[in-house]
Amino acid sequence: MAVVYHPASSLVAKLEGVHLFHFDGAPCAQRVRFALYEKGLPRGREVQYLADDDEACCGENGRWVSRRVSLVKKEHMTQAYGEIHPNLVVPALVHDGVLHIESMDIVEYLDDAFGGTPLIPKYDHAVLEDSRALTRRGEDLHRSVRFVTFRWGLRGLARLSSKEENHLRKLMADTPDGESLVEFYTGYDNNTIPESVYIGHLDKLNAAFSDLEARLQDGRAFLSGANLTMADVIWAMKTLRLSECGYPFQQCFPACAEWYTRLSSRQSFQEGVLGKHRLTSKTFCAKAAVEHWLGIGLKGEVLQRMA
Ligand SMILES: N[C@@H](CCC(=O)N[C@@H](CS)C(=O)NCC(=O)O)C(=O)O
Question: Euclidean distance between the first and final Cα of the chain, in Å?
Answer without folding.
Answer: 42
